[in-house]
Amino acid sequence: MELAMNFKSMGQKIKRARERKGYTQEELAERVNLSVQHISVIERGIKAPRLETFLNIANELDVDADYLLADLLNVSEQLTSNELYDMMAEVSKKEKRRILEVVKVLIEMADK
Asked: What is the dihedral of CA 68, 71, 76, 77, to 10 degrees?
């Protein structure tokens, strides 16, 4: 996998997490002491943030660093489970039941 594409994936995850928190790029930039342009560059995957910046962003957005880095690493199944858990936390109980039923069908189909 090409590294630049992975940075793009990380940037997209940061953007989604920012939007879930209800922050604009301006608000996130202010909270982590960066310029709006720097946040934009990171979210578009043009450039990876420095480690300190990365940690500040992850902490401010309340996301796991492993979730943001998953596409850059040889990921274990645990990271995939963490990502699914994070996604499920955002849906209602009714939606969770529907999703579970779909997953059951997909697993049954995979076993055949």
From this structure: 80
Measured CA angle at 75 (ends 23, 17), to 5 deg: 5
Task: Judge whether 14 and 40 are in contact, CB under 8 Å.
Answer: no
**Domains in the chain, ordered, with CATH?**
3-111 (1.10.260.40)
Compute the Cα dihedral for 84, 87, 93, 94 and give only its sign. Answer: negative
Q: Which of 105, 110, 61, 108 is nearest to 86 (CA)?
A: 61
What is the per-residue pLDDT for 89?
79
**What average pLDDT does this structure show over 60-78?**
78
pLDDT value at residue 1: 44
Cα 29 to chain centroid distance, Å, stands at 18
Q: How confident is the model at residue 9 (pLDDT cuts 50, 70, 90)?
A: confident
